[in-house]
């Protein structure tokens, strides 16, 4: 009879634990960059892990921003709601804002789209600044919140009965096995009872601000001079390093020491003063990046001069 009691008690413990956590399958199904300012650079593409995702970007000027579009999938039979009291940990320089497409309810067996915008709000005093922040959006199960809470009441009653039953077994029989069962139940139940209330969407944010990053321009050679792109770089950076850095945000490539006569190959060059005129000079991977205007194009066939 004692063994049956122990088996029943363990079964109730395990069953209660699994029933609550079986619903914990809501997760982020996708994350995309909805909008981004011209100056903002993405250090790392956002990574998703269950209900967590990361944000890693660099800002240069006030009002730079990045806006993420997040799709949350709820395959469970329960409705969830994004708590209205969610507050992000803003500081003097970085601001966070979240919006929801429609109401805040993530209905059962459906998806919900939300937007999180990170922006450079106020100019920093120092030249460089890095801000790491972990935040959370609270999710509450509508069928188990404090207002309707029928399932929570059931879990509470079951918990009390299990604890009383376990104490009775220990006091009456004083067996070590009964004490172990009671300890297991006491350690498992708090997790089961509060699992729904602590469900969160976690955001790991890393924002870098570079206030004094120098710039240069790359223009299309022999084309409209307005077709130029502005890039940033770090002082002392050579082209080989720049090409693989975050500053090369649109994956520019060119051939090392290429020229306009390298047929079919992309070259990069700039003009160097020579006496009273300027001559073209090709860029090598080992050259330093400088704050000037460069020109790029595709090499053509150049007939040899006599």
Structure summarized in a few sentences:
This protein is of the alpha+beta class and about 300 residues long. Helix content is about 20%, strand content about 35%.
Count of alpha/pi helices: 4
- Beta-strand portion reads 35-45%
Rg for CA atoms: 30 Å
SSE string: HEEEEEEEEEEHHEEEHEEE
Average pLDDT confidence is 79
Secondary-structure-derived class:
alpha+beta
User: Major β-sheet, in short?
Assistant: 7 strands, mixed
Number of strands: 16
Unreliable stretches, pLDDT < 50, 5 or more residues? Answer: 15-23, 145-152, 190-198
Descriptive report:
Helix 1 runs antiparallel to helix 2 and helix 2 runs antiparallel to helix 3 (176-194). The longest helix is centred in the middle third of the chain and has 24 residues, at 150-173. The protein contains four helices and 16 strands. With 306 residues, the protein is an alpha+beta fold. Residues 15-23, 145-152 and 190-198 have low confidence and may be disordered. The chain has helices at residues 2-21, 150-173, 176-194, 239-243, and strands at 27-36, 41-44, 48-49, 52-59, 65-74, 80-82, 94-100, 105-106, 110-120, 128-141, 200-210, 215-220, 228-232, 266-274, 277-282, 293-298.
């Amino acid at each position: 009879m004692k063994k049956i009691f122990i088996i029943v008690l363990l079964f109730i413990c395990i069953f209660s634990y699994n029933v609550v956590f079986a619903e914990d399958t809501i997760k982020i199904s996708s994350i995309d960059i909805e909008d981004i300012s011209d100056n903002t650079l993405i250090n790392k593409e956002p990574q998703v892990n269950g209900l967590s995702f990361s944000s890693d970007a660099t800002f240069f000027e006030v009002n730079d921003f990045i806006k993420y579009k997040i799709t949350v999938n709820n395959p469970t039979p329960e409705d969830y709601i994004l708590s209205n009291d969610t507050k992000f940990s803003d500081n003097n320089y970085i601001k966070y804002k979240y919006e929801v497409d429609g109401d805040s309810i993530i209905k059962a067996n459906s998806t919900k789209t939300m937007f999180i915008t990170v922006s450079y709000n106020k100019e920093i005093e120092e030249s460089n600044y890095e801000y790491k922040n972990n935040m959370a959006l609270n999710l509450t199960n509508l069928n188990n919140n404090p207002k309707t809470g029928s399932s929570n009441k059931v879990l509470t009653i079951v918990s009390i009965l299990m604890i009383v039953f376990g104490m009775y077994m220990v006091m009456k029989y004083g067996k070590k096995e009964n004490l172990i069962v009671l300890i297991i139940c006491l350690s498992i139940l708090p997790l089961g009872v509060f699992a729904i209330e602590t469900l969160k969407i976690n955001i790991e944010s890393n924002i870098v601000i570079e206030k004094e990053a120098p710039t240069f321009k790359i223009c299309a050679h022999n084309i409209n001079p307005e077709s130029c792109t502005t890039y940033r770089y770090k002082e002392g950076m050579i082209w080989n390093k720049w090409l693989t850095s975050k500053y090369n945000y649109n994956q520019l490539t060119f051939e090392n020491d290429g020229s306009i006569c390298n047929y079919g190959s992309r070259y990069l060059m700039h003009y160097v003063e020579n006496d009273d005129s300027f001559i073209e000079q090709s860029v090598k991977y080992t050259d330093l990046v400088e704050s000037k205007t460069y020109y790029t194009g595709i090499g053509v066939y150049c007939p040899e001069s006599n």
